[in-house]
Amino acid sequence: MANVAVVGAQWGDEGKGKIVDWLSVEADVVVRFQGGHNAGHTLVIDGATYKLALLPSGIVRPGKLSVVGNGVVVDPHFLVGEIERLREQGVEITPANFKIAENAPLILSLHRELDAHREEAAGGGAKIGTTKRGIGPAYEDKVGRRSIRLMDLAEPDTLDDKIARALAHHNPLRKGLGLPEIAPAMLREELLSVAPKVLPFMDAVWDLLDEQRRAGKRILFEGAQGVLLDVDHGTYPYVTSSNTVAASAASGSGLGPGAIGYVLGIAKAYTTRVGGGPFPTELHDAIGELIGDRGHEFGTNTGRRRRCGWFDAVLTRQAVKTSGINGIALTKLDILDGFDEIKICTHYMLDGKRVDRLPASQSAQARVTPVYESYPGWKETTSGARSWAELPAQAIKYVRRIEELIGAPVALLSTSPERDDTILVHNPFQD
């Protein structure tokens, strides 16, 4: 039985929540390993809708252990609110079924303020498209070795020194930006007020997961955002602040890379992204609008409308390579029902030359133009299909061509938000 890492193979919003929930039935442990509460997952289970941002998707399944790893930046006040909202929906969340890494960095109010100030002050072309939730500044503090981490809340006597170290950086920065300085006592109160509510969930996650692995438990690693938003391998600087590739499932949880047996990439049957940055196949016409409307392409947590375009095989193939993706879960095929013509981007042209990857250069990314293959659409519906036999022939041809172009097989095919509307080709846990 293989442990499975699930990553977005595009710019996020690919439908990871449903796929993780679908897989979590066979998993014993579900682990978030990077990102923060800028990641939105929507789960539809037995007619009930759950909207998650920080908690792992497995939390809604009884009998599963859900874990937030050290690679995640945690807003403790947001976390408490999310726990309370889910409890109101009847979800049980206790220290027995939910753990947070003791060394997880915390997102503070000063991070949120700095994030929002930078984005609002940036000129049009300089806007990154951040969610303004403090994720980037919190990661900056982590690598700057001035983070306040979850374990620090358990040692209030040592907190003043850590607060002083953080404010020695932030207060001069805030002063230069025209923001009021923060009093140490205010930050201390912010932290201590939430400490009793989050500390019961604290654990040495790396050790706990090693025990689970050695006991033969099946672990599902749940990524946030998408591979194309990776801070190293994405469309920099229009990226998130963490490594979203599958390799960070190991570093973000405290397990070695050998603990990951199968990497499942999630990709929509078309392409979307939120915020600024290059998007070679973006459609600025009625078709793009129609895809967005039919696909309900609005951010789970932000409500922002997503940009939409045709499937980009170049980018997904790149994601397959940088994350070592073994198989793809293709989602939202049903959104393409009824189109007369459907297109797939097979390669780009850059300054008159063919290129088969997205260049790392920001200026080159802005200059690439997509080259498409066109396919006849299908008039029949794929919504709710649960076997290949229920799919129109043209839809099957479309899926097969995607497999050829990206260099990875389709392991699962999702045909609606409902959990059971899934065609299983290969069970990742059986790899």
TrEMBL record:
<feature type="binding site" description="in other chain">
    <location>
        <position position="131"/>
    </location>
    <ligand>
        <name>IMP</name>
    </ligand>
</feature>
<comment type="similarity">
    <text>Belongs to the adenylosuccinate synthetase family.</text>
</comment>
<comment type="function">
    <text>Plays an important role in the de novo pathway of purine nucleotide biosynthesis. Catalyzes the first committed step in the biosynthesis of AMP from IMP.</text>
</comment>
<feature type="binding site">
    <location>
        <begin position="414"/>
        <end position="416"/>
    </location>
    <ligand>
        <name>GTP</name>
    </ligand>
</feature>
<feature type="binding site">
    <location>
        <begin position="332"/>
        <end position="334"/>
    </location>
    <ligand>
        <name>GTP</name>
    </ligand>
</feature>
<keyword id="KW-0436">Ligase</keyword>
<feature type="binding site" description="in other chain">
    <location>
        <begin position="38"/>
        <end position="41"/>
    </location>
    <ligand>
        <name>IMP</name>
    </ligand>
</feature>
<dbReference type="GO" id="GO:0004019">
    <property type="term" value="F:adenylosuccinate synthase activity"/>
</dbReference>
<dbReference type="InterPro" id="IPR042110">
    <property type="entry name" value="Adenylosuccinate_synth_dom2"/>
</dbReference>
<dbReference type="InterPro" id="IPR033128">
    <property type="entry name" value="Adenylosuccin_syn_Lys_AS"/>
</dbReference>
<feature type="binding site">
    <location>
        <begin position="12"/>
        <end position="18"/>
    </location>
    <ligand>
        <name>GTP</name>
    </ligand>
</feature>
<feature type="binding site">
    <location>
        <begin position="300"/>
        <end position="306"/>
    </location>
    <ligand>
        <name>substrate</name>
    </ligand>
</feature>
<dbReference type="GO" id="GO:0005737">
    <property type="term" value="C:cytoplasm"/>
</dbReference>
<feature type="active site">
    <location>
        <position position="142"/>
    </location>
</feature>
<feature type="binding site">
    <location>
        <position position="145"/>
    </location>
    <ligand>
        <name>IMP</name>
    </ligand>
</feature>
<keyword id="KW-0963">Cytoplasm</keyword>
<keyword id="KW-0658">Purine biosynthesis</keyword>
<feature type="active site" description="Proton donor">
    <location>
        <position position="41"/>
    </location>
</feature>
<feature type="binding site">
    <location>
        <position position="13"/>
    </location>
    <ligand>
        <name>Mg(2+)</name>
    </ligand>
</feature>
<keyword id="KW-0479">Metal-binding</keyword>
<dbReference type="InterPro" id="IPR027417">
    <property type="entry name" value="P-loop_NTPase"/>
</dbReference>
<feature type="binding site" description="in other chain">
    <location>
        <position position="225"/>
    </location>
    <ligand>
        <name>IMP</name>
    </ligand>
</feature>
<comment type="pathway">
    <text>Purine metabolism; AMP biosynthesis via de novo pathway; AMP from IMP: step 1/2.</text>
</comment>
<dbReference type="InterPro" id="IPR018220">
    <property type="entry name" value="Adenylosuccin_syn_GTP-bd"/>
</dbReference>
<dbReference type="GO" id="GO:0044208">
    <property type="term" value="P:'de novo' AMP biosynthetic process"/>
</dbReference>
<feature type="binding site">
    <location>
        <begin position="40"/>
        <end position="42"/>
    </location>
    <ligand>
        <name>GTP</name>
    </ligand>
</feature>
<dbReference type="GO" id="GO:0046040">
    <property type="term" value="P:IMP metabolic process"/>
</dbReference>
<dbReference type="InterPro" id="IPR042111">
    <property type="entry name" value="Adenylosuccinate_synth_dom3"/>
</dbReference>
<feature type="binding site" description="in other chain">
    <location>
        <position position="304"/>
    </location>
    <ligand>
        <name>IMP</name>
    </ligand>
</feature>
<dbReference type="GO" id="GO:0005525">
    <property type="term" value="F:GTP binding"/>
</dbReference>
<feature type="binding site" description="in other chain">
    <location>
        <position position="240"/>
    </location>
    <ligand>
        <name>IMP</name>
    </ligand>
</feature>
<comment type="subunit">
    <text>Homodimer.</text>
</comment>
<feature type="binding site" description="in other chain">
    <location>
        <begin position="13"/>
        <end position="16"/>
    </location>
    <ligand>
        <name>IMP</name>
    </ligand>
</feature>
<protein>
    <recommendedName>
        <fullName>Adenylosuccinate synthetase</fullName>
        <ecNumber>6.3.4.4</ecNumber>
    </recommendedName>
</protein>
<keyword id="KW-0342">GTP-binding</keyword>
<keyword id="KW-0460">Magnesium</keyword>
<feature type="binding site">
    <location>
        <position position="40"/>
    </location>
    <ligand>
        <name>Mg(2+)</name>
    </ligand>
</feature>
<dbReference type="GO" id="GO:0000287">
    <property type="term" value="F:magnesium ion binding"/>
</dbReference>
<feature type="active site" description="Proton acceptor">
    <location>
        <position position="13"/>
    </location>
</feature>
<dbReference type="InterPro" id="IPR001114">
    <property type="entry name" value="Adenylosuccinate_synthetase"/>
</dbReference>
<feature type="binding site">
    <location>
        <position position="306"/>
    </location>
    <ligand>
        <name>GTP</name>
    </ligand>
</feature>
<dbReference type="InterPro" id="IPR042109">
    <property type="entry name" value="Adenylosuccinate_synth_dom1"/>
</dbReference>
